[in-house]
Design goal:
heterodimer; A: alpha/beta; Rossmann fold; Alpha-Beta Plaits; 4-stranded antiparallel sheet; B: mainly alpha; 12 helices; Transport permease protein (chain B)
Chain lengths: 334, 289
Amino acid sequence: MPGAIYAEGLVKNFGDVRALDGVDLDVPEGTVLGLLGPNGAGKTTSVRVLTTLLQADSGYAEVAGIDVAKHPNEVRRSIGLSGQFAAVDEYLTGRENLQMVGQLYQMPKAAAKQRAGELLEQFNLADAADRPAKTYSGGMRRRLDLAAALIVKPPVMFMDEPTTGLDPRNRQALWEVIQDLVKGGTTLLLTTQYLEEADHLAHDICVIDHGRVIARGTADQLKAQTGGERVEVVVHQRDQIESARDVLAVLGKGEVAVDDHTRKLTVPVLGGAKLLADVIRDLDERGVEIDDIGLRRPTLDDVFISLTGHEAEVSEPEDEAAAAAAAGKKETAK
Amino acid sequence: MSAPTTQAPTLAPAPRGGISGSIRDSLVVGKRNLIRMTRIPEMVIFGLIQPIMFVVLFTYVFGGSINIPGAPEGSAAAYKEFLMAGIFAQTVTFATAGAGAGIADDMHKGLIDRFRSLPMARGAVLTGRTLADLVQTAVTLAVLALVALLVGWRTHENIGKVLAGFGLLLLLGYAFTWIGALIGLSVRTPEAATSGGLIWLFPLTFISNAFVPVNGMPTFLQHVAEWNPFSATVAAARELFGNTIDGVPKSVTGAWPMEHPILASVIWSVLIIVVFRTLAVRKYRNATA
């Protein structure tokens, strides 16, 4: 049975630019998919197709079991969208914004009003509820935007880089909200450039580049694919590097990499924490002084670099919009 | 941000659909635009200054020099009364440029993506906007009528007919708002929508019966002026205000709209609404932010 979000062979061209080149996705109900990729990889375009804002040139997509191309308005009842930019009216107060969105989700006026009040409390906006949104800070606008997306407690949520531009405290708080949503049974598709964020929140990860999914799996699977655990040692004295290399060569499971300049030695290992203890003991016995030692697992950054050949750069998120504008707005949307 | 109480997701209520759903959604969006107007009052105020200047300038600068053929010699009163319906009509049409700019501005904000991802009526974003603009136009027209009375404009028909005259002016303004909306959706910046929304209005409002009778124009322009939808509403309002001048024939080319200005005004306005609303809503649905 296809998941709550399902896509097969989505293709979308903006003029000569192929934004999506056959994207397949399948997100089981109640799980979080992290869509990861560099700028212009097709993350936002995928979200726009799935949220009925853009029509794909070819391919099939369904959300909550409903055909996105055929019944867009039915899909809209089931989704919440929080985009890269805070989609709020800056001249309306926070409360007025939420009430309006609630009513346009077809909630009765009184229910929209009540729900707006609840969300303002929940997102720590109660004090600012009756001030125009243009007086809000960036983090407050983001929270208001997210609250607007949650007003009907939709079964499927799309968040396009929800924490871009948030300070660490607000990012942490947003993560908690997201985790709680998922606990309640919401299915979430999350795009992000922060690998840490995907690692933290997503059950499954799709890495997308040049409009194609180039890898998928859990964070652990992707990391295992890139390589296993390593022990890293930084010795205190340069003349101790050779002794340390001997120890690591015996205990490690591969070639010992040495960086003379930083006095850092790295070796792939099996056996985790137990082995780390052995390394420390043997180094101690040979009188090697250690500045730093650690068991290092590959991060999603390592995965990213090995898959795409470049780092996940964090820069302005307007690339796709700019590409679309450059292509002369030829796309049609439903 | 406090952690929310965990809640099971729910579907949004089913859209009502049909006309009543469309009206409801349009009113919700219209309210949003009206709130914005109260928060940016300078926009409403600047929208008032220009037409007031027109009333005052035309009355005192041109009023003394323009003699309407058939009117008593040197009578500024006749021209003043003749002129007002034209200025009112010009005011309601010029307001459309602002509507276009507002829509162009909206289209480049994330809020449009939010609207387009909601289960709301298709045309409601634009209809709500045009309804709010209609309210603003009505306020402008009321203020303008007061200023016109102050500079000596008088009506000579019963209140029902006078109100009907204003009704036709508002209907024309509403129709033109949809043209402004289409322009706003077709350009890339609000600035382009403002200038693009104004340029065509100059020939449209001047090649008409709004400021001078068409008698003095070349024959070719007489035909254009008398078939101009704008002229029909000016003639209709003039008739309903009792501001026609006895010596001036209703029509010099025998154009049907000039012989039946009230009916023609309604037909033109409804036709413009139907055509341009259809085009604008389609354009909106195909646009991206």
